[in-house]
Specification:
Elements: H1 4-7, H2 26-37, E1 46-54, H3 57-69, E2 73-79, E3 83-92, H4 96-113, E4 116-121
Antiparallel strand pairs: 1-3, 1-4, 2-3
Length: 126
């Protein structure tokens, strides 16, 4: 804490999402490499979308609420043949540690509520 924290309250402001210390998955590293090859500047924040599917609506709604409580923006849609799709959107610098942390977060929600993690995607940012 710097000296301003003694006099000025530190409200608001989002803390960056912590990075995972676990080794990244090979498929995540491949997607990051593909983004880089396509010209994306990986040092800049990207809107990353991570998806989880559920067979029933109730657990999908619970997943959306849980992820929104954790600070992610979410969309819930019915998906033909796959049940319900929860798409979580977060703005982050796509480092291997940040993507691994997002994967862990989504897999935990899927495991708790009986869903399946489907992966993530991000557009090219120049």
């Amino acid at each position: 804490m710097d000296w301003r924290g003694w006099f000025l309250p530190r409200f608001g402001g989002r803390r960056p999402q912590p990075e995972s210390l676990s080794p990244p998955q090979a498929e995540d590293l491949e997607q990051l490499a593909e983004l880089e090859v396509r010209g994306s500047r990986l040092a800049l924040p990207h809107p990353v979308r991570a998806m989880v599917t559920f067979e029933e609506e109730a657990p999908a709604r619970s997943a959306r609420e849980q992820l929104e409580h954790e600070g992610l923006r979410c969309q819930l849609r019915s998906s033909p043949g796959a049940g319900w799709l929860v798409t979580a959107i977060v703005e982050l610098v796509p480092t291997p540690g940040a993507i691994t942390r997002l994967r862990e977060q989504m897999e935990e929600v899927a495991r708790e509520l009986g869903g399946r993690y489907e992966g993530w995607e991000a557009p090219v940012v120049r």
